[in-house]
Amino acid sequence: MKVNIHQSWKQRLSNEFEQPYFNTLAQFVRAEYTQHTCYPKGKDIFAAFDHCPFDETKVVIIGQDPYHGPSQANGLCFSVKDGIPHPPSLINIFKEIESDLGKPYPKSGNLERWADQGVLLLNATLTVRAHQAGSHQGKGWEIFTDAVIRKVSMECEGIVFLLWGGFAKKKAALVDPSKHHILTSGHPSPLSANRGLWFGNRHFSTTNGILEKNGKSPVRW
Is the pLDDT of residue 3 over 70? Predict the structure, then answer.
């Protein structure tokens, strides 16, 4: 299975790739992709890292699982491939951007355009079996992605972490709040958004304000 990961991450995560748990995880993932339909495509498993080099990372958004429907997942949390209907959470993300920044609702749900600007769109679990949400949880991905969050926290400065929903908020324990900015809100899923826990959080304008204050270019959301 051919995977792509930017050299800057490959260097910093080389020790993680050599850990026994990762070897077990890799064997599991290879077997799953051989025996079942899984998402995203093998080459896109590390797309979040490939599009967002370590040294250019300035925002981290944490999701939980890849989309498990056909042609949806592209390796970036909340993102779908060009031409694919937008899932409910992504619709609510775009609606909040409309309200917060006055930007028109986009045609494409492909968030590679964010990742290419330094937004690490990190799912806690990087693979999933088709039509079986959570099927690759508890196999080692979470150990790996927690290590990624710790690495960013330790080696970077002034990163904006956007933690949406209960699962993501737990990752705040991995982040040094004296060095970074942590913004939390409800999840953009309809269940949370319809209870008033998502809309109006203004995370996108707030993030850009923090970045500009720190001398970094704002994200073109």
Answer: no
CA proximity to 41, closest of 10, 9, 76 = 76
121 φ/ψ angles, rounded to the nearest 5 degrees: -100, 85
Residue that is written with structure tokens 């964010």 in the block = 114
For residue 23, report the phi and psi dihedrals to the nearest 5 degrees: -60, -45
Tokens of 208: 């850009």
DSSP state of 171: G
Contact criterion met (CB below 8 Å) for 173 and 182: no
Q: Are 210 and 181 in contact (CB under 8 A)?
A: yes
Angstrom distance (rounded) from CA 77 to CA 70: 16
User: Which position among 44, 50, 65, 100 bears the catalytic label?
Assistant: 65
- C-beta separation of 11 from 55 below 8 A: no
Length of the chain: 221
Which amino acid is it at 150?
Answer: R
Q: Helix, strand, or coil here: 131?
A: coil
The count of other CB atoms within 10 Å of the CB of residue 170 is 12
146 is catalytic: no
Q: What would the pLDDT profile of 53-97 be if each residue is shown by its tens digit?
A: 999 999 999 999 999 999 999 999 999 999 999 999 999 999 999
